[in-house]
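Quick check before the chapter quiz. The format below is the same one you will see on the exam, so make sure you can read both the input and the output lines.
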Amino acid sequence: MRYHLLGQTGLYVSELCLGTMTYGGAKGIWENIGNLQQDAVNEQVKFAVDAGINFIDTANVYSLGKSELLLGQALKTLGLPREQLIVATKSTGSMDETPNGRGQSRHHIFNAVDASLKRLQLDHIDLYQIHGFDPLTPFEESLSALNDLVRSGKVRYLGLCNLAAWQIMKSLGVSERLGLAKFVSVQAYYTIAGRDLERDIVPLLEDQKLGLMVWSPLAGGLLSGKYKDREDKGPTGARRSSFDFPVVDKARAFKCVDAMRAPAQQRQVSVAQIALAWLLSKAFVSSVIIGAKTMDQLRDNIAATRVQLTTEEIKMLDEVSQLPPEYPGWMLALQGQYRAKPPFKE
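Here is the expected output.
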C-alpha cells in the first residue's frame, strides 16, 4: 500500500480508500447498492486496515445514517487506533423532509456535523465534505460555517464532491478573499471509461494543488469484467441490474473492458484490478475509493495495488479510452503548440 499527500496538506492517505456505501441497506436505492450489517462491516474494516488502508469514506446520507452508525461501531468494537485513521464523511443530501433537512446552510451544516459525530462515536471528523452543489446557499455562508467547524476542532480538513470546475474555483476564491479554510480535496467520478474529469477539473486540480478522491472507479461494476456486453445484466445480485448508475457510455466502456482483458489474463488477475491499476497510475489521483458487497470483491480490489502496468500498456489503454475532441480544448491545444518548445536552439 502506498500513501499520498492529500492535496496541498501534510496529511498522508492510503492510495485506496475504503468506501462504505454498501453498509446499511436502507430502503430505496440503498437496498440495491448494499445491505451489509455489523458483523460484515467489522470484517471489512479490519481487513482493509490490516492491508494498510488508513482512509475510510462515508456520508450521512448513505442508508440515511446507518452507514455512519455501522462504521462507528466497527471502529469501537475493533479498538482501532484513532490517531492512525483518516475518517471522512459528508453532508448536503436530504436526511428528512423538513425544510432545512438538506443543503449547505449554516443551520444544516452544524446540525449535520453533530449528528455524524454522534453516529460515528468520534470527537472529530478528519475530512468533512460537501456532497454536491447547493444552488440556494451562498458559498460565503457555507464556507464561513465550515471554517468555524475547523476552528472548533470538530473538523480538520475540508473537501467537496461533484462540483463543476467553475464552482470549485469560485469556492476557492471566496475562501481566499475572506481568509477562510479552503477545500483541500475533490471527490469525483472518474474511470477509464468515463474520463470527462480530464477536460476541466483535472487541470484545475493540478493548478490549485487539490487532492482527488475517485468514486465508483469500476463504474458501478461495469468495468469488473463480469458483464459480457451492454445487454448482459451480469450475475445475480449485480448492482447495475437494478440500479444502472453511474451514467456511462456503455459502448466506450466495453471497448475498454475488451482492451483490459489481455493485460488481466497475462497476469492472471481480474479486469477490475487492471481498471484500478490504470487509475492508480495517474499522478493526480490521491486515493481511489473501493466499496464492496463481499469480502471476495474487497480482497480483489485491494490486490490491485500489486499490479504495475507497463508504460506501453498505459499508453494503449489511454488511447483506447481517449476522450473525443471538444471545444475549447482542441483550440487551446492548437494555439498553445507554438509555446510548447523553446523557440531558439541553445
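If your answer matched, good. The longest strand covers residues 155-161.
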